[in-house]
Amino acid sequence: MTKNEDTKDLICVAKIIDAHGIKGEVKLKSFTGGQGDIFDFKELLDNSGVLKYKLKKKAITTKAIIASISGVTDRNMAESMVGTMFYVNRIDLPEIEDREEFYYNDLVGMDALNQQKQKIAIVKGVYNFGAGDLIEIEFANGDLEMLPFSNKVVPEINIEQKYLIIDLPEVI
After folding, report:
1. pLDDT digits (tens, 9 = 90+) for 157-166
2. What is the CATH number of the domain that holds 19?
3. Confidence at residue 1, expressed as pLDDT on a 0 to 100 scale
4. pLDDT of residue 127 exceeding 60
5. pLDDT of 4 above 50
6. With contact defined as beta carbons under 8 Å apart, do 25 and 81 qualify?
7. Is residue 96 part of a domain?
8. Which domain holds residue 78?
9. Last residue of a domain, which of 50, 66, 91?
10. Coiled-coil region(s) at which residues (predicted)?
11. What is the CB neighbour count within 10 angstroms for residue 145?
12. What are phi and psi of 122, to 5 degrees?
């Protein structure tokens, strides 16, 4: 197999957070719009775009998705996969019809401008560690800062012109 040349177009859609039971099932955290949307994809990829996985739904709870993965047949195999991230190609995601909606991945690399529309940083990523979305920006001097991804801190996003406005809190 050769490495997928378009790994920059891979979007993370789920992560294995734990093994479940003795038959190789796993608990997943889904990053898709709805918990069950992860099963809409025929196959999921690893971060290189080479390895392919097929999931089968077992259960959906408010905290996690229980699934089996083709080829994973026991708990030891499932435990060895904890932390594995699953990806899909960007082109396999549904098209966004609403101009007010976007995929977080679309923000990466955008210019972060201040209220006067002067470039102050570049967007490095958008994350959620459980307490709400955070946007990471990198200033010209290399400093990284994570800010709440809220309407107050990020009042404007322009996907077409590839910039967003950051209203920096006074503590920075």
Report:
1. 998 899 999 9
2. 2.40.30.60
3. 32
4. yes
5. no
6. no
7. no
8. 7-91
9. 91
10. none
11. 17
12. -125, 140
Tell me the C-alpha distance between 82 and 98, whole Å. 35
Contact between 85 and 7 (Cβ < 8 Å): no
Mean of all residue pLDDT scores within the chain:
88
The answer as to whether 148 is a domain residue is yes
Q: Say what the pLDDT of residue 101 is.
A: 80
Asked whether 166 and 137 are in contact (CB, 8 A), the reply is yes
Residues composing the chain: 172
Tens digits of per-residue pLDDT, 133-155?
A: 899 999 999 999 999 999 999 99
Q: How confident is the model at residue 2 (pLDDT cuts 50, 70, 90)?
A: very low
Phi, psi angle pair for 91, to nearest 5°: -70, -15
Angle at 11 between CA 149 and CA 39, to 5 degrees: 105
Sheet-wide strand order for 111-113: 144-148, 133-139, 119-128, 111-113, 163-165, 156-158
Residue whose token pair is 């992860």: 38
Asked whether residue 85 is assigned to any structural domain, the reply reads yes
Residue 36, SS3? helix
Residue 172: inside a domain? no
* Spatial contact of 153 and 166, defined as CB atoms under 8 Å apart: yes
What's the number of domains the chain is made of?
2
